[in-house]
Fold each of these.
Amino acid sequence: TSVFARSSGELARLLFAEREGGSFRVLRAMYGFEERGDGGDLINRLLMQSPAVKAARIRRKIAQRMLEDSLDVLPIDQPILVLAIGGGDGRLETEVIARLKRRDVFYCGVDKDTRAVEENRDVQKQYGLKGRGCTFVGGINGTSDVEAAMAFAEQQVGVRFAGVGVGVCQGSAEYLDMDS
């Protein structure tokens, strides 16, 4: 790991120098590799071509397609809350919501990392969804936690929800891949 820690690449730095494990910043580095075309140094490029990282990028595309399909079939007569457990900066869900151009879809990410709050605001603004999303800092361990996150979302976006329209839990497989 000391060789990887000396890399100037973002993914290698996050994993081996800063020891972030499966944080949303690690996932963002993996996902953004193809989009940016900037692989960093040789060590980082090799890491980005590993089976675990490639699989994470494939799972992201699948998750986005599933979310889009789920939102497409929901009625447009009531607001929809996408609740993303382990949502990080919310980029995965925000990209889908922005593509759909539905004004009735809102986002609430749940993450234990307080840095996700500001980064989610930036992502929402970048995709033209400012004010339609928020981040609840904490964990979800049961029904009362889901209700607390929903109440927080209602307060933040100023809309009442009849329930969660779509629930998204992401990252678990990536965490397993990164630890194995």
Amino acid sequence: GSWKVLAKQEDSSDFAYVQTMMNPSISTAYASFMKDVSVVDGVIEADIKVESGTASQEEAYLFFRMNDARTQGYAMMVNKSKWLYLYKVASIIDAGRWNFTQLEYIDLPTSFDPYQYHTYTISLNGPSISISVDNVRRIVRSDMTYYDSNHDNVGIGTSQTGGMVWFDNLETKDSIAAVD
């Protein structure tokens, strides 16, 4: 995909990471992984906004505990339908498409507006995976499948987008680096 750093519409002096490659008709995922960041246990946080587009889902992803080949790990996904998922990434099908196994799913509240920035926090502690949205815990799951030092990569991604997806304040805590 094509990723850019662009000035935010709300504040032209603030910048965010944006996927500008849009393809609303297919399920190809575009991903970018953080360099020199390693998180097995810790916190991953990002502010995400999905722009209104022509795609049916407009999906935003946070990948975590991914292996170096980016073929195994976990993904949090939120979309414009106000659905929040926790997936296990079991394998890669081909470039830009993964084989996901759904671990958890919830509908976000009707008041949730995917077209506004929301803070997504993934807390990792041993087998415990917790996902919060705007400081409200939404998903808690225990899974040991990819809990080891070979699964420590963090990334962002999009799929089925007709509008831009904005990622801001991407940060890891209890790890080597933070990126804004």
Amino acid sequence: QQERIQVEQSMMYYPHLYWWAVFCAPLGKDEKTIFDQYIHKNLSKLKRKRAILHTVLQWRNLYPSFYLHVHSLGERVLIVKDLFDNSYKVVTIHNNNYQKPASNQILTGLILPFGKESYCTIIDFLHVFTPEAEMGMEETLLLLLSPSKSVVISPSELKKNYPKFLVRSMNSIIQAQIN
């Protein structure tokens, strides 16, 4: 049963690793991401579409994060709180495989700026867990991601080591399903 759960979970987090690699993983000598290479190659085409260019250029600074689902404004419109910078964001999810999060669910993924103070996801958030009442969500998440407690996790740390944090999160989900 544990192997079946691990296979199912890996199918859930693979898309998150894929999009992290596109937007965040530096490649080659120049350490540009796949997305940076795309922008560089297509900049002349994008310059003709100023509104699109402005939005797309914001995506160069993306980093994955962990969020608290605060409130749903509609079936696919959520208010989330970034647990690392404490900002609130209105996020629309267009993915067909959408799963509505529970109240106080901790989510992870990449969100893209899309217009003024609105965001969207490429894929649905990964639902990490719902925190236990006796421990605060920030404490729970930080223990999960940084067991040593002495490390402060910055956006650049999240961007660089997201696969490691994602694996820790997924192991937590697997253990919860087994127990």
